[in-house]
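Class prep. Protein, please:
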Amino acid sequence: MSNIPETGRTPRVKIRVIVIQVLVFSLLLTLGGRLWYLQIRNGQQYTQEADNNHVQQVVQPAVRGSIVDDRGVPLADNETRLVVSASRTELLKQPDDGKAVLTRLAGVLGIKPQDAVDKVRLCDAKTPKPCWNGSPYQPIPITDKATTQQALQIMERREDFPGITAEPTAVRSYPGPVGVNAAQVLGYLGPVTDKEVAASEKTDNPLLRSDSVGRAGLESQYDQQLRGKSGVTRYEVDNLGRVIGKAGATPAQAGSNLVTSIDSRVQAVTEKELAEAEKNLRKQYDSVTGENYKADSGAAVVMDVHTGRVIAMASNPTYDPNVWTGGISSAQYTNLTNKKSNYPLLNRATQGESAPGSTFKVISTSAAVNAGYNPDGGYPCTSSMTVGGRVFKNFEGENFGAISLAKALEVSCDTVFYNVAYDQWKKDGGINAKHPKDWFFKTAHQFGLGKKTGIDLPNEVSGRVPDRQWKQAYWDANKAAWCKDGKKGGSYVQQIEFENCKDGYQIRPGDSLNYAIGQGDTLLTPVQEAVMYSAIANGGTMYQPSIGKAVVSADGKKVTPIAPKVSGHLPDSKKTISYINKALQGVVTSGTAAWQFGGWPQNKITLHAKTGTAEVAGKQTTAWLATYTKDYAVIMTISQGGTGSGGAGPAVRKIYEAMYGIGADGSIDPKAGILPKPVSALPKIQSDGSIDAPELKPYKAPKKKEPVDPSAPADPNASEQPAEPADTGGGTQQVAAGPLATLTRRD
C-alpha cells in the first residue's frame, strides 16, 4: 500500500489555491472596471485631452480699457512702447539653450546677462522671481523700455538674435494730466496667481497665466470691465514641441473704458494743497510738545453733496503709480511697504482711521436734540468740569457762560457737550444701566458710522463706534492681559489697565464725556465724514460714495451709467438740520474757523465748517476740518498737524477758491473757477468708441495777500469774546478779519 496521496492536495493546499483564484479574479475584475471607466465612461474626455496634447496656445493680451476723468481726460491709459521679447521655443533649439543669444541681447539692452536668462525661465514652486508664469509658447518680455536704436540693432542683425523680437506693444501708463497723481485711487496692475487662474476657470472670462489684473484702487474694483478678453491662437506641435501648423484663433476683445467723477484739475489742486499744508506745518512750532509739527500724513476728500460722487481724493504720503509698469524692483516695493516711508500704498481717505475730535459734535448735537434737550437752552460753557474726581477741561480753558448748542458748535465748547452727555448717561442708568436709550451711540450709527460706506474702492475700513456691544467684546478679548499687567499704583498705562480689568466692559462717565467730543475710542475715516457732512448740506440724505460714473464699451455702443445710491437718511427733522446748518455758518463767520476765512464772500457762496483737534496718546494732535457749500463738501485731516483750522484751514480755502474762481479781494469769477458747478453729463463719445478729451491747463491761483501766520502770538488787546460779523445791509458779506482771528483758532 502506497503512502503517497492520490492527488497530492491536502485541505491546506486547496485553501491556498482558492485564495489565489479569488485574488486573480479580483485583479481581472478591477482591471476590467478601470478599462470600462477610461474607455467608455470617460472615454470622450480622455480622447479630447489626448487630441489636445499636440495643440498649444499663444495668447494675445487684450487692450485694457482706459480710466478717464469727468471730462474724458485719461488718468490711466495705454502707451505704445518698444517691447523686446524672446521665443523660448526658438531659444531651446540652440545648442546652449539660447544662453549666447541672451548674453548678446543683454549687451545691447545694457542689462546683466543673468537677468535676461532669469526672465525666460519658467516659474514653479522652487524658482524665484524673476521668471515667466505664462505659456512657454508665448513670447516672453525681456524689457518694455527699449530705445529705437536698440530695437534697430536687434532687428537688423537677426542672424545674431534668433527668436528675439522688438515690436511696439501697448503698456499700462498713468499720464498724470495737469500734475495729477491719484495713485491710491487708480491702483496698479500685477500678475495673476495660480489660485486666481483656477478660481476663474468657470467664469465667463477666465484668467490666463500671462494676464495682469488690478491689485488696488479702481484698477482692482473695475478689473472685470477694464480687462477685456485675451485672444488665443492655437498651434499644432509635434512630440518635440515644434510647431507644425495652425489650429485656429480667437480674436482679443478690448476692455471697456471707465468714466469717473474725478475732476483732474480739482484733484491736482487738492493734492497740491494737502502736500503744501503738511510742508508748511513742519516749519511751525508746537508749543505743547516743544518741537515742530511732524505732519506725517493726511487725506482730503471733495464730494458732490447731491450725489455722493467723489470729485477729488488725495492721500499723503503718495508715490508714482508708473513704478509698477514693467515690473517693480524689490527695493521699490520695500520702500512702498515699510514703516520708514509711512506706507504710501495706504489710501488714508478710505483706510485711515482716527478720532474725529470736535467734528463729531454735530452728531452729539443731533443726539441731544432727539433726546429732548432744548437746543436754545442755556448750557454752561465753563473752563472745566469735574466728574468722578477727574477734571475735564475745555481745549484752551475758555469760559463763554451760558450758551446754546448752536453757539457751543460755533466756538467748539467741550464742557457744554460734557454736561449734556453726563446728564444723559445718568438718565440711562449710570454705570449699571438696565435699559439705556443710548441716544449718542444710536445717533452715530444713524449717521453711518461704524460701518463701511460702500465706496467703489477695495479694502475700505469701517471705523468704530465704541458702544456697549463693542465695549463688552473688547473687554472679553483683553481682560486677561489687563488683569495680568495692570497695577493700581503703577505707570499711567498700568493704572488704565488696572481699571479696565475691573470694569472695562461698562460705559463709565468718562467714556461718555470723551465720546461726546469725538475722543476716546471713536474712529472714523475722511470718506465717512464726507458722507456725513454732505448729508447735512443736502437736507438729510446720505449717499453711497462713488467714483465710477459710467462704463463705456470699447466701440462706444454700450454705455452703462453708475447711478448714485441712497444709503440712508439722517435721524433729524428739517428744523434740526437747519439749526445745525446755521451754527456751522457761525463757525466760519465768528467761530473757530473765522480767522482763516477773512474776506470770504459768505452772502454769495455760503460756507459751513466744523473744526476738530483730536488728541492722540504719544503723538501730536490730529487736525480735522469739515466744510461744505451748497455744492461740495471738502474734508481734510492731517496727522500730527495741530488744530483743524490752523492745520487744514488755508489749504481747504484754496481748494474752494480754485473751484469757484474766488479772487484775492473776495470777488467771484465763475469763468476763472475750475469747477463752479458739479459736472453731471458724461464726456462726448466719438463714433469709433474713443472718448473726446479736452486739453487742460494747470490751474494758477491769483496772487493774494499772505495768510495769517498760525504760529503768530495772540493780540493781548483783543477781546476775549469772538465778535459777531457786521451786517453789511446788502451786497457781498465778507467774513470779518482782525485781532479775533488769533483768539478763535482753537477747535
In short: The chain is about 35% helix and 20% strand. The CA atoms of residues 489 and 495 lie 7 Å apart. Residues 710-733, 736-746 have pLDDT under 50 and may be disordered.
